[in-house]
Design a protein that fits this description.
- Five copies of one chain form a homopentamer.
- Chain A folds into two domains: 295 residues, CorA soluble domain-like (Beta Polymerase, domain 2, 2-Layer Sandwich); 79 residues, Methane Monooxygenase Hydroxylase, Chain G, domain 1, CATH 1.20.58.340.
- Helix content of chain A is 57%, strand content 11%.
- Chain A is α+β, with helices and mostly antiparallel strands.
- Chains in contact: A-B, A-E, B-C, C-D, D-E.
């Protein structure tokens, strides 16, 4: 439990995260479309160029400039230009121009927070996907991938490690990556992005299992807040996963020349994963909704039990208390034989006690008949 | 907080706004279709003509009359006729006739409150969109845009500033606006209208964040009313945004000659924004629904806690009170040894106190076993 | 308020209206299809024939018989046969035969309560629409319209005034009605039927606004019943409006020869109105659902407040009452120094009062810390 | 009311009905498909053959055997073989073979509880529909209809009277039945099956009206159970009606040679009825859901009122009771002037009463200000 | 009941089952696609080969190796290779290579927990389905079926008995299995898998019936937990059944050469069963949701009743108790004629008792008028 709450606390406050992620960074209302704007908080860009020959030969060139790129495109059969950090608007713009990307696509690279989407241009395919690099939603960043059979160009917001396995496979001379065209490399990157959502959803599943055990044991108020919080996070995740699945489906269905049939077959597998992710999130949400309802039901059942006890105790003792009060009245028996003669009876007190016992037993019998005592 | 409520108070009362906006202004039931009716509250019209040459030359002519317009159409490659205020039914009608607009389209211009829509006529495209010019829904007005590659004619209800950025770009000789045909100008206007919804939705997001913090701190009754109010406003907004997205999608999909492929590519971007707006509103609505539920749950949890305390206190003290009352009865011990002999016992009082203590401790033990004391 | 309830009371009881409207009047189960059955409560039919020439000439012939009709069809370019009241089954049947209507269509004319629909026959188009002639749903009646480019034949259940504006425009020699074929006349009638729903929905909107103000001021039980009642009425209305919209959409989309492109363009406007009606009803339903929830929430919040007060008062005074009862016991101090010695202390009474004060203040401090006093 | 409960009691217990109806009778898991299994509770079969000539001539032959059928098919232009009771598996199988029905279709005839469906075979059309022969769901049985233009073969589970009107029309020499091919006869049977649902739904509507009146008068616990029960029944009915409508729609849309255009036109009417049934059931379900909610709301409103009274009475009298207890304490005034000197004041008692009155009036004023007294 | 809870207890804990079933076993994030990974808990594989000649001749060879398989494919017209247990990754891989299965398909065989799906490859059809071999969801395992007209290859996780009936029909020389191609054998296996879900759903239906009877008799807290648990299980089942139905529908619709029209006709029957299963699960879920609501409603109705009693008793006896306390006060009548003169009245006590009786009767009359006594 302690571990769990830590995980939760480490997450930045929802309010802030929201501003960071949900609200698309836009040029001012009415600005010319395609205007490139800089984000003051953006990371400084790092350009890494990976060149791959069909024979397993490859080079890694860090901090390349534009002329290096132009040279590499001529020399190598496929290249991967990997740009992390979007602070330098002009650099992104010039790379875009060099590869012939549409101005609006270049704008989308910079205005992070775009919905997942695929655009088929004449010369290349443009894919925008949200990427997690750690096990929580707050690490989400936008990856923009431009590719055709000759090159892959990726832009991401921050240095992150989701692409590391692909890099390692390149360094290890992974056969498939070298034998196929650059579109297969793009597939491998997209696959890595999609699969990075599994750990997050598995974490959520485990948290939900924990909470469920707690709710069944004892329904407490802060569980409610946590469950609502978590359900909203899952909902938010689904909003990301739906268009992501659609974007990948568009890649699978298209007959663009930039994607070989073979790569599309592999993308089918990624599409299966995306659907699996959606179903896991759907299950999480369902379970949470059910748990919230169950929590409310159990809390309400408990209150009913409490009210039941209150009623039984009050209903028995309030009349008895009245009787005791009655015989505690100070009407003067000396003045008149009508004034509380029972107080001076020989068996007055035992009779009174007996009467009280009869009332109490009668009420208990009534409650038993009603079935209200069965619940204690 | 104070600031927030001010924002809310400044908005006109819902009832009045509704009448103003939801109810389409119609000709009397059964009137001949296409009947143009004047709205007594409408603004007097102001006609402004902007002429744009391909070489960046342009003119702004205010308070033009019909003959000016005819002349300008002959002389300039593209013109923008900007009409604000719909009080002069005849003027609107004559402009419509001059440009060859369909009678029903002219009727739609005047009967504000139309749903967002696109109609492809032989000679031009007719678009109706609701426009915000300030950050609340009450500032909504209808903009009717007629355009083809040669002209753009816009009608709006009140003078407003959403188009100002476009006007400035014209005055600044914005390259794209002069190089392209008038359909691009229409796109720029539509884009400005759509983007004007972002500030409203961002305001709502922030308000919701504020309310969320409040609800988590302390659930109060007036938060409920505010959240219901806000949820309805968001719902209303969605009703506007759905057909707006459809209208823009129709513009993107059409193969009308009045829209160049290039402009349609730009409209795709506007379409993305419209979808983004819808998702933001969807998120707002979801969050509000979740918050209302959470509010109810927390309030109910709090009542449970209160009832719990009531039960514990009553269940302990009502029986004790009965015992005290019992020994406060006035049965006469002098009359009979059966009458309350315990009152005269040497250790009667301490025994009675001890008995009460035993009852109280027994009940507390019972509550502890039930787990009801854990909640205090 | 008084006015409002009057409006509501004037409406016939729901139970009766339901029987009248929802349950289709059918031939006995298993009867031969196309069997024409008479409704004993039906109005006696009135046949009115309006003949229209292209040059604005027209005649109105009341109480025509079949031979008149045949003559008029030969003589005039377009005619409108207007039949109000369906008591004479044979007459309807003979008119149907004279114009060549399908037996099942003739059955639909008589078995009122049909769903709105359009059927395209070889020779004509058959439209069934529900018509309101006053501002409440109980005035609903079925209108059956048969038309092609030469004639319009309408059957309705009762004499009503929705078509009056069209009649007036004919009498006034309305240009459009005379210049175009009879399908335009059919359009004008359909438009009149659709527009007659606006006043009803506007009335409901206003009622809802009134109720909303009441709910926000004070949530009362009878508001609940009214809101449920109204929501059901709106839902019922939607059931009428959905197929109505579909029927009109079918008229707009069809390429039947009986409808000119020009008339279809006009029907697009009617379709817009139908969609508008649906959205208004959707908004009403949403608002009512929200108000019902808000009502429940406010009532529940109020109960929480009441229970809170009960708890505070009981929790403070029941222990104090116990203490008072304790010192009201009659243990005999004369018998033993252990029996209630505090009663004979010099400062016994003030100390007891002080103790009570301490208990009370302690509990108040506890409640204040819990934040329960903040709500009063 | 007594009448109503009788109607309800007459229905078999839900549990049993469910087993009878919802669970398809299947061959053991893994058995060869097309295995025909006998139901031990099935009715013994009765075979009736109706032969129809085009000239109105017809014969009714009861208890026919297979050779009779073969002869009749040669001799007459159309025949109807009517089999009630499915106990004789072999007989059904042999009839199926004689007419050339697919083995799986024959299996469907015997394994009752199939979903409504239509299958278009090369030689005939196969329709499965659930039939009611009395006004409650428990009388549901499966009717299997095989037909083409020459014959109709029907299998049903029990002798029932839904087809009686059709039989009577044959006996009366009904013109349409004799003039048309056998597919029209199939239509007449399907129409009879569909129309038999109207009385059930009308009964439910009336019951709901009754319950509604009761709920509005006084919300009781057993109404809840009844409404839930009824809503489930209606839901169950909808599960039957949805695929039934789809099956009929498939018959209307198909261009199979076994159905003439004329018959399809008539089936459109049946389709309208099926949609009408669905809408009636939808209305019933809606109304029930609304009523259940209203019931809960009213019960909750009533509890609020009760708790309100409890609070008012307790809050007034518990403090007063404490004061009375206070002055009933036995501190000894003789020991000290500090001990309860007020008891010996000249106006002590009236002052005390006055104080109590002030407290009570103060609380009443507080409640009035809060608006809590307005509800009594 | 005891029996029932046993059934429930035998099921493994939800938490564990979930980990086992819902979470797809995946290669590490970023691993090369098509990587085959071993599951340490997997069963050791058993290979059984069944060869079938068209003339009813067949052989069963256990523990075959790859060379046997290659021989059998040459010799026999159709073979079924049945592999249970997936521990030997290499073996699965080599079988896959021998038959020419796609690497990703081979990966799917090993990474159990795939969604039900169908893939049409050039050379064969690949089907993944979840299989139950006992009457609870925890026995779910993945079956992978590769087939064309010559062979069927099945992989499953554990030895199970769902295929036993098919094996028996082979041993018994079942005609249909020998006369048709291997695709019919594949159909028979798929049919067995689908039908194995019926017992589970029938068990759930019966459990729900039992719970319903209990809920109607007495609403208890643990029923709630059980119903939520069961509803989630049913929901989970639906998630399996939806894609299963879609997969079978794809087999029915495809025009792949590997499936004969005849087999597709049989698969239509399996499709019907899958739809039936979905409807049964839908009914179960609906019933459970209705029951949970009913449970809550009844519990709430019961609490209302309890609170009602509490209110009546408290409201009657608290004022009476106050009166008794009043006349128990010790104001000194000797000091002043104003101090409690009523105590010394001749009829003081009877008058006081009478007054109390009047108050009690008055309150009872008030409750009766309010209708609150009618509920006891």
């Amino acid at each position: 439990m302690a571990e769990l709450s830590e995980t939760i606390d480490k997450k930045p406050r929802r309010g802030r995260r929201k501003k960071r992620k949900d609200v698309i960074r836009r040029a001012p209302v009415g600005a010319a479309p395609g205007t490139l704007i800089a984000d003051p908080d953006a990371h400084p860009p790092e350009l890494t160029l990976r060149t791959l020959g069909d024979d397993g030969q490859h080079e890694v060139i860090r901090n390349v400039d534009l002329s290096d790129i132009v040279g590499a495109r001529r020399e190598w059969s496929k290249i991967w230009l990997d740009c992390t950090g979007l602070a330098n608007v002009e650099l992104v713009d010039r790379i875009g121009e060099a590869f012939g990307f549409h101005p609006l696509a270049r704008e989308d690279v910079l205005n992070v927070g775009q919905r997942p989407k695929v655009e088929f241009h004449e010369d290349h395919v443009f894919v925008v996907l949200p990427m997690l690099d750690r096990r929580h939603e707050a690490s989400r960043e936008q990856v923009s991938i431009f590719f055709n059979r000759n090159y892959v160009v990726t832009f991401q917001e921050r240095p992150g490690d989701v692409f590391d396995p692909v890099r390692k496979r390149i360094d290890a001379g992974g056969k498939r990556l070298f034998e196929r065209d650059a579109d297969y490399l793009a597939y491998a990157l997209i696959d890595a992005i999609v699969d990075a959502y599994f750990p997050l959803l598995e974490d959520r599943s485990e948290e939900i299992d924990l909470i469920e055990d707690e709710v069944l044991e004892y329904a407490e108020q802060d569980q409610l807040t946590r469950m609502y919080e978590m359900r909203r996070e899952v909902r938010q995740l689904q909003r990301t996963l739906w268009p992501m699945r659609d974007a990948i489906a568009a890649l699978v269905r298209t007959d663009s020349d930039h994607l070989s049939d073979d790569t599309q077959r592999f993308l089918t597998d990624t599409q299966d994963h995306a659907i699996q992710l959606l179903e896991m999130s759907e299950t999480s949400r369902d379970t949470l909704t059910g748990l919230i309802e169950l929590h409310m039901s159990l809390a309400s059942a408990r209150t009913n039990e409490v009210v039941n006890l209150l009623t039984i105790v009050s209903t028995i003792f309030i009349p008895l208390g009245f009787l005791a009060g009655l015989w505690g009245m100070n009407f003067n028996p000396d003045v008149s034989p009508w004034n509380m003669p029972e107080l001076s009876l020989y068996f007055g007190y035992p009779t009174a006690l007996g009467l009280m016992l009869v009332v109490a037993l009668g009420l208990i019998w009534y409650f038993r008949r009603k079935g209200w005592l069965g619940r204690d």
